[in-house]
Amino acid sequence: MSIEQFCGWQYQIADEEFTRLQSLFLPFTFQGDIRQNPGTPIWDIARRMLGKLPPTWYQKTGDCVSMGACQAGQYMQIFEMSKLGQEEMFKLWFPPYVYATSRVDIGGGRLGRGAGSTGAWAAQALQRLGTLFMDDPGVPQYSGDLADQWGYRGAPDKFKQIAADNCVKGAAKLGSVEEIRLALNNYKMCTYAIMWPYDTEPHTVRGKSGKEYPVLKRKRDVGGHQVCLLYWNDDVDGAFCLNSWSDRVHGPSLNGEPKGGGYILRRDLERDLGGYSEVYAFTDFQGFKGEADYGFV
C-alpha cells in the first residue's frame, strides 16, 4: 500500500463535525498546579512500570485516527496508573473498535465504505463507548479488512457491552503550540491530525545540550493523517510524535523514545496548525481494575 492509503483523517468535514459535537468537549483548563517544564519522559515511566513499551501500531488501511487515539490513550493510562496511583491493570487497546464506534455510532455512518474518521468522532467514541482491550474475550486479530468491515458495519454489540466500563472521561480541543506544550508537560497525551507533510526517512537534530534526537522532516503533503504527541522536549523545542506506520519508519530511537516516531519542532508545529488541523488532549481513563503488579496482559 502507498502512504496515501494510510491517511484517513477526514479533514474536509473535521471542523463541521467538531462544531456539531462541541458542547460535549471540555475547555482546555487545569485545576491546581500547572507544570510549566517537561517531566520524566512518558516512555521512561512506561519502561519502569511495564518493563517495556507498548508496541507501535502498523496500519493496514486508512484507520490512522483510531491508531493515534489508542496510542495516546495507552500512554495516558500508563501515566495515570503510575503517577496517580490508579489501581488498574494495563492492557493494550484495540483500534478497530474505536474506528468502528467513531465512524458508525458518532459519525452516523456518514462516510459509508470510504476510509477514515475525524478526531472529534474518535474522542467522543472513547468517552461514550469506551475502548476494547486486545485480550477481551473473543476479540479478533487486527487486520485492515477487519477495520474496514467494522468501520462500515459497526462494532458487534457484544463488544460494546465489554468496552462500556473503559471510557476516557475527558477530552479538550487545542488550538496552539503553547496549549500542546502545556498539555504534554502535564502528561495530557494528544491526538494530532494534520495534512501530513513528513517523510519516513531517518533524520536527526542537535538539541541545545548537544544531544542528538530523531526529528521529522517536511517533504510533501500526502493527505490527512492522525498521530499522537507524547512528550514536549525543551532541548529541541518540539513535541515527540508517534506514528502508526510500524516501528521501522523515521529512524532508530536515540534516547529511549518509542520506535516509529520523531520530534516535530515548534516551527513545524506552527506551520501544521496554520492549515487543516485537529488536536485533542485526553485526560482521566477508567480502565480494568487489577493489582498494582502491572504488565502486559
Number of helices: 9
Mean pLDDT: 93
Strand content range: 15-25%
CATH class value:
Alpha Beta
Radius of gyration: 18 Å
User: What order do the strands of the largest sheet run in, or round the barrel if closed?
Assistant: 1-8-2-5-6-7
CATH superfamily: Cysteine proteinases
What's the end-to-end separation, in Å? 31 Å
- Just name the CATH architecture: Alpha-Beta Complex
Q: Would you count the extended β strands for me?
A: 8
CATH topology: Cathepsin B, Chain A
- Find the structural class using helix and strand composition: alpha+beta
Task: Give helix % range.
Answer: 25-40%
Question: What does it look like?
Answer:
This protein is an alpha+beta fold and 297 residues long. The chain has a single domain (6-285), classed as Alpha-Beta Complex (Cathepsin B, Chain A). The protein is 33% helix and 19% strand. The chain is built from nine helices and eight strands. The protein has helices at 11-21, 42-50, 64-83, 95-106, 119-129, 144-153, 157-163, 177-185, 266-273, and strands spanning 168-174, 190-198, 204-206, 212-214, 218-233, 238-242, 261-265, 277-285. The protein has a six-stranded antiparallel beta sheet with strand order 1-8-2-5-6-7, sandwiched between helices. A two-stranded antiparallel ribbon has the order 3-4. A hairpin with a 4-residue loop joins β5 (218-233) and β6 (238-242). α2 crosses α3 and α4 (95-106) packs across α5 (119-129). The two termini are 31 Å apart. The model is unreliable at 290-297 (pLDDT under 50).
